[in-house]
Design a protein that fits this description.
Blueprint lengths: L1 E7 L7 E3 L4 E5 L6 H16 L4 H4 L13 E10 L2 E12 L4 E11 L2 E6 L3 E5 L5 E6 L17 H11 L1 E4 L9 E2 L13 H8 L3 H11 L6 E10 L2 E8 L10 E4 L5 H18 L3 E5 L7 H18 L2 E5 L3 H11 E6 L5 E5 L9 H7 L4
Parallel strand pairs: 3-16, 3-17, 10-15, 15-16
Antiparallel strand pairs: 1-2, 1-4, 4-5, 5-6, 6-7, 7-8, 8-9, 11-13, 12-13, 13-14, 17-18
Helix pairs in contact: 1-3, 5-6, 6-7
């Protein structure tokens, strides 16, 4: 799980530190930095798991607007693999040609170096901390992304694999395509390619069985779902419903794009649970209650809490929804706000049981 994040000189973040738990609800006004916090995590993930240049990941305009400092600093902590990983990165910007580079980068496991770039050379270390090879590299991208897996660097490659299992969801149902030309192993944030991701998941038959099991109590009349061949390698996601009474069967099919926005979002919500039941991961949900009714979000939220408590998965939510606030804020709420000079800050949500619900406190602006 992600247990530590430090950000300095990135958008609204200056000397910002946060230690998330296994279940966290991020609260705060619009513009307080909640979504930007998710953006930092996803940017670091992409930078370390995909071929990506520093100019793409950390362009000059991501520096804090209120200053003119040339260095951006990031630190990410992850618990897992029977230890703790600490990744540190410093990006140096050059004002004269608007370019940037890695000034310093390192990865540790329980304070044992696994990788270090000192500004000129990259140094690799074995699992036991002994020095491996070193050589000059392109300082505009991280070598961690491309290091091949070997028997003596399993800790480093575990870290990289775990980063790929940080999933950020902020679906836009109107953009979700109902057809797929190929499989996609990872979900995209907006879930435009949800069906392609589902094709990949359904290679494991148990995933399809479990998703059907979770959706049946949630979608009225839902009987099942299937990927229908419509030519070549293209498949269409089709749902079957039956509203027959007194034992009569009158099933009919509805394409995924024929579902309501709320039904598509509910499908994605429960798909994320199936994923988390089967892999060690962190789920980052940006307003999971969008398009979903009060009656529908509560069972999903209960399932999330069970997943966290029983399987130790991590779930971090952003929401303004009263149901999520009343359920989670008292014990798991973190409030983001703008402090001195407009910099983002975070602190535990403050609430005392005095007859006023957490959601009402937020609505009245009394959380200070």
């Amino acid at each position: 799980m992600i247990d530590h994040l430090y950000i300095d000189n990135y958008r609204c973040f200056t000397n910002f530190e946060w230690k998330p738990g296994v279940l966290t609800l991020l609260l705060g006004d619009n513009g307080s930095g909640k979504s930007s916090l998710f953006d930092v995590i996803k940017t670091l993930q992409a930078f370390l798991t995909e071929p990506m240049k520093t100019e793409t990941a950390f362009p000059s305009n991501t520096r804090t607007a209120t200053g003119n400092r040339t260095e951006q600093t990031f630190e990410l902590g992850i618990l897992g693999n029977e230890g703790r990983y600490t990744y540190g990165l410093i990006i140096e910007h050059h004002e004269d040609n608007r370019r940037n580079r890695i000034k310093q980068e390192q990865l540790k496991y329980n304070d044992v170096l696994l990788y270090q770039f000192d500004g000129s050379e990259a140094h690799l270390f074995r699992d036991d901390g002994s020095a491996g090879s070193y050589f000059p590299i392109d300082w505009s991208k991280s070598l961690i992304e491309s290091i091949p897996e070997r028997k003596d660097n399993t800790r480093l490659t575990w870290f990289r694999k775990r980063l790929r299992h940080v999933h950020l969801f902020s679906p836009i149902p109107q953009d979700m395509r109902g057809i797929s030309e190929s499989e996609k192993a990872e979900p995209d944030c907006r879930l435009a390619h949800y069906v392609s991701w589902l094709r990949y998941l359904f290679n494991t038959p148990e995933y399809a069985v479990r998703l059907k099991e979770l959706l049946q109590p949630v979608l009225d009349g839902f009987e099942g779902m299937r990927l229908k061949d419509i030519g070549g390698s293209t498949k269409e996601l089709v749902f079957t419903f039956d509203f027959g009474e007194n034992g009569s069967k009158r099933p009919f099919d509805v394409p995924f794009n024929g579902l309501s926005d709320g039904q598509r979002c509910l499908t994605v919500l429960y798909t994320s649970l199936v994923l988390a039941e089967n892999e060690e991961c962190s789920l980052l949900w940006d307003e999971p209650d969008n398009y979903v009714s009060l009656r529908e979000i509560q069972p999903w939220l209960t399932a999330v809490r069970d997943l966290v408590e029983e399987q130790g998965r991590q779930c971090i939510l952003i929401s303004h929804h009263p149901e999520l606030i009343n359920t989670l804020a008292a014990e798991n709420g973190m409030r983001m706000y703008r402090g001195e000079n407009g910099h983002a800050r975070i602190k535990p949500f403050q609430w005392e049981a005095d007859g006023i619900s957490p959601a009402e406190i937020v609505a009245r602006g009394w959380e200070d």
